[in-house]
Write a structure and sequence with these properties.
The termini are far apart. The chain has a 17-stranded parallel β-sheet that branches. It has four helices and 27 strands.
Length: 316
């Protein structure tokens, strides 16, 4: 066999094994509906674009190509699947538009992944760097209160494994027909996290928000529920509709809470071992533990807009 023919055979075999379509919904075990669709992205790949199929050995060179390859689900079984995109550490100088219509996406950083170039000192924007945004939207929902959404995550055992977003994270969940869109972030966001409409649940783990976290005006159709927060830092104002359980997070420029409603499934509700600076805005009540209340009291923080607080038992 010639070297050329051998290469073609290996290419076809590897494409079948590593390509993103190797698991089709029809071939899945119906009792194991969580088998993931997977693809890989590496902006440093030297493969020609026609050979990039998203397999481990044939990764996409752009995040946009990987996102475009994820199919929408067409049944309840498929809608329970998560679609995982493994992202090699690199700077991806592209704006991302993430369509989560009938999709549940996990973008897994295998190291430090930067959206946009950050060539300045300490991961800041340098001369000529363009802030790149992530826009997330949903135009339809399968029904049955199925959760759609996107997760930007890192690896727990890899230092610096996270997404760094040079611009904003913009979310429009108006098309989910009353179902919540899940936004889970382990990310360093230099711009604003802005939910313009729809029902959105935010889950932040080890995140750093340099800009504001803003929800829409609270209505029956538009809410931002800060469902979970763990070990995350907020440098600017936070304005949300409702909360779940927020633990060991810092809020350095105030927090506004619109309603006393509890996030869907998270208990216990409240702020635990959290640091506060700035005003606490209402009209809702802030349930806090004694550790959180220490910062509120010692800094004589103002409660404005009808805000109140209740000191409750610690989470321990």
């Amino acid at each position: 066999m010639s070297r050329t023919n051998l290469f073609v055979c290996l290419l076809l075999i590897t494409s079948c094994i590593c390509g993103p379509d190797r698991i089709s919904p029809a071939d899945e075990d119906p009792f194991a509906p969580f088998s993931p669709f997977e693809s890989w992205v590496d902006c440093s790949t030297s493969l020609p674009v026609p050979l990039q199929n998203g397999g481990m050995l044939f990764p996409f060179s752009t995040l946009g190509a990987a996102l475009a390859s994820v199919p929408a689900c067409s049944s309840f079984l498929e809608c329970r699947r998560q679609y995982v995109i493994h992202v090699q550490p690199c700077s991806y100088d592209e704006d991302l538009v993430i369509n989560v219509t009938r999709r549940s996406l996990v973008m897994q950083a295998l190291g430090t992944v930067t959206i946009g170039n950050l060539t300045g000192p300490q991961w800041s924007a340098g001369p000529g760097d363009v802030a790149r945004n992530i826009t997330i939207f949903s135009s339809d929902d399968f029904g049955g209160n199925m959760t759609t959404g996107v997760q930007l995550l890192g690896l727990d055992d890899v230092a610096g494994s996270e997404f760094r977003v040079s611009g904003n994270v913009l979310v429009d969940a108006s098309g989910t027909n009353g179902a919540y869109l899940e936004l889970r972030l382990r990310a360093d966001v230099l711009g604003t996290v802005n939910v313009t409409s729809g029902l959105v649940e935010l889950d932040a783990q080890g995140a750093h928000f340099h800009g504001p976290v803003l929800g829409p005006a609270a209505t029956n159709a538009s809410q931002l529920a800060y469902e979970r927060c763990s070990g995350s830092q907020h440098d600017a104002a936070v304005n949300v509709t409702q909360i779940g359980s927020l633990n060991m997070c810092s809020f350095g420029a105030g927090f506004a809470l619109a309603t006393n409603a509890s996030s869907n499934s998270v208990r216990p509700r409240g702020f635990y071992n959290c640091f506060f600076a700035g005003q606490l805005g209402g009209p809702a009540n802030f349930p806090v533990d004694s550790g959180t209340d220490y910062w509120i009291t010692s800094q004589n923080l103002a409660l404005v807009g009808g805000a109140t607080k209740t000191v409750q038992a610690s989470m321990t």
